[in-house]
From TrEMBL:
Keywords: Hydrolase. It comes from Sinosporangium siamense. Transmembrane segments: none annotated. PANTHER family: AB HYDROLASE-1 DOMAIN-CONTAINING PROTEIN-RELATED, ESTERASE_LIPASE_THIOESTERASE DOMAIN-CONTAINING PROTEIN. InterPro entries: AB_hydrolase_1, AB_hydrolase_fold, Sec-Metab_Biosynth_Hydrolase. This is Alpha/beta hydrolase. Residues 10-223 form the AB hydrolase-1 domain. Pfam families: Abhydrolase_6. GO terms for molecular function: hydrolase activity.
């Protein structure tokens, strides 16, 4: 299908411990549906650096942009979404911080009984998830071999990125969508719902782990397509 020149461009932003290749399934579904799609490769060293990397990709687009973030990528799009070309935001099992909030502050007070992400103590300023516990915590609905590959190919996540606080949350001035993964063991679903409600997001819920963007690309692509349709003249 040819790309519709009137449709917003879609920019996909990954989170911590992973890279942009996890968006492959979502990317192909959106491309096959006629959308123009780009994928950001965040350095995940600092929030400022990741916002800069995202803005660079936004700058390269021609026309309005739908900005999509997974997990920590939600923090990135919350700040980068203030770019004039961004018309709406989509959060996929993601952090949606308010002014002054960071991943650190958002995970400081988890709901009672919520699973604790198996984040190992920092080494040289970087974090990793426990490889043995990664499949159950991050990717419980993926085949074991695939989840183990993700565990063994983790991208070290900079402590400074977790500390990075949002200065101006774009969701306060732009429409947003939020896909809640109801079986997420990294960001508790009640936390996801609370952030989505606060942001005034259009909410969709689907069974899925934190890796829902990998395990159920159709559900993710459908939410992104809904946001794109709402922004298309």
């Amino acid at each position: 299908m040819s790309t519709d020149s009137a449709s917003p461009r879609i920019v996909l932003v990954h989170g911590g411990f992973v890279d942009g290749s996890g968006w492959q399934g979502v990317y192909h579904l959106l491309k096959n549906d006629g959308h123009n799609v780009s994928v950001v490769q965040n350095p995940t060293l600092s929030l400022a650096g990741d916002v800069a990397a995202t803005r660079q990709v936004i700058d390269a687009q021609e026309g309005p942009v739908i900005l999509v973030g997974h997990s920590y990528g939600g923090v990135v799009v919350t700040e980068a979404g203030n770019h004039d070309d961004v018309v709406s935001l989509v959060y996929i099992a993601a952090f949606a911080p308010d002014k002054g909030e960071s991943v650190n502050s958002l995970i400081a007070d988890p709901p009672p009984g919520a699973p604790v992400p198996p984040i190992l103590p920092p080494v040289d300023g970087f974090l990793l998830l426990d490889r043995e516990r990664f499949p159950a915590s991050f990717a419980g609905d993926l085949p074991v071999e695939q989840a183990e590959f993700m565990a063994d190919s983790q991208v070290p996540w900079g402590v400074e990125a977790l500390r990075g606080a949002v200065a101006q949350p774009a969701w306060r001035i732009k429409p947003s969508w939020y896909l809640v993964a109801t079986e997420d063991r990294m960001i508790p679903p009640p936390t996801q719902r609370a952030m989505a409600e606060r942001a005034g997001s259009t909410v969709v819920e689907t069974p899925g782990s934190h890796a829902v963007y990998v395990s159920d690309p159709a559900a993710v692509a459908a939410v992104v397509a809904e946001a794109a349709a709402a922004a298309t003249p």
